[in-house]
Design brief:
This protein is α/β, with parallel strands linked by helices. The radius of gyration is 20 Å and the shape is globular. Helix 1 links the parallel strand 1 and strand 2. The strands form 2 sheets. Strands 1, 2, 3, 4, 5, 6, 7, 8 and 9 form a 9-stranded mixed β-sheet that branches. The protein has a two-stranded antiparallel sheet with strand order 10-11.
């Protein structure tokens, strides 16, 4: 059987040192398939461009890298991923964040499972924190741990099979989400589905997973497809993301109202989150106790944004503009130059 060709997509913005660590891990992959790396710069500040050049030069003879920049009108990780997918030449497209550190078997795990099981259309893998000592990072990791543990429970598998009307591939667990910082999708399925939806500036990875599942295409969880990730340690950044995620949570629920039925708003939700994270919080001692007000603020901000979005139609406020998944422009790299080129994925 010929080796599977893999495209690895990495959006980046103002983080050349993190990208260096990510590429170092990719250069150290054990028995990887043939692969290319597509790095798309999302408008990094000029002061970082020199460092990016040094990183690319360092790996120019070690890795097959194509580097492009998003044009001025297109911004955000979702636009970077859309552009890279359109350039990708691999049969499977893997996705990493620039601050991800893939394990040595990350690429070979993707190749093995996608080659051995033709039924697998998309996969997400385990995410672990680089720093478990910081209370905010440890709390975030507890949420990831709970999410992945849920996928391994037998009743979750049965629930997802019934919900989407599909059967899990033998010996695999279905996943109802993809993590943009650690996932892989068959290129043909991405093309048929119309790529990521650009109207989802956040949660575009989960929206894609739901879209694939709704088409009867299995997304699975591969624990061996592991990475380490630099979870945010900034309270302000976490609060901002919590509010914005509430907005896109509402959009996701509106789009998939027949699938997503769990309640989002509830006064007791912060305390349910604290209960799920209690082991991590206890391990942190006083730091764990001190972060409880932050957890409450994160939960209530998320709910506030969700409620605000739900009230907009009643207040006559317009929706954010967003095109269809295949309506945006792509990037093309020609002899080191980046140009815009219309692409019709259909």
């Amino acid at each position: 059987m010929p080796a599977l060709y893999l495209s690895v997509v990495i959006p980046t913005r103002n983080r050349p040192i993190d990208l260096l660590n990510c590429l170092t891990a990719l250069a150290g992959q054990v028995h990887p398939p043939p692969y290319e790396i597509l790095i798309v710069d999302d408008h990094s500040k000029p002061e970082f461009l020199g460092d990016y050049s040094n990183v690319l030069i360092r790996f120019s003879h070690l890795l097959n890298i194509r580097y492009s920049k998003l044009p001025g009108a297109e911004r955000g990780a979702v636009q970077a991923r859309i552009a890279a997918v359109r350039l990708a030449e691999g049969e499977v497209v893997g996705f990493l964040d620039d601050d991800s550190v893939p394990s040595p078997l990350w690429a070979s795990t993707i190749a093995q499972h996608f080659q051995e099981c033709a039924a697998i259309v998309a996969a997400t893998g385990f995410i672990d924190a680089v720093d478990q000592r910081h209370p905010l990072s440890a709390f975030r990791q507890s949420l990831y741990d709970a999410r992945y543990s849920r996928l391994l429970e037998s009743h979750t598998k049965l629930t997802l099979e019934r919900r989407f009307g599909i059967k899990s591939p033998a010996n695999y667990h279905l996943a109802d989400f993809l993590s943009g910082g650690n996932s892989a999708v068959r290129a043909s399925a991405l093309k048929d589905a119309g790529n990521f939806n650009p109207s989802f500036k956040m949660m575009h990875d989960k929206e894609l997973a739901l879209r694939l599942l709704a088409r009867g295409l299995p997304c699975v969880y591969l624990p061996q497809m592991a990475i380490k990730h630099n979870h945010t340690k900034s309270v302000l950044d976490a609060l901002s993301k919590a509010f914005r995620s509430g907005k896109y949570q509402h959009r996701l629920r509106t789009t998939y109202s027949d699938i997503l039925t769990e309640p989002v708003v509830g006064i007791n939700r912060p305390f349910e989150t604290i209960r799920r994270a209690r082991r991590s919080l206890i391990t942190l001692g006083w730091n764990g106790l001190a972060i409880i007000p932050v957890i409450c603020a994160l939960e209530y901000l998320h709910q506030l944004a969700y409620v605000v979005e739900s009230l907009k139609p009643k207040l006559g406020m317009g929706k954010e503009k967003g095109g269809a998944p295949n309506s945006h422009r792509s990037l093309t790299t020609v002899k080191g130059r980046t140009t815009k080129q219309p692409v019709d994925l259909k």
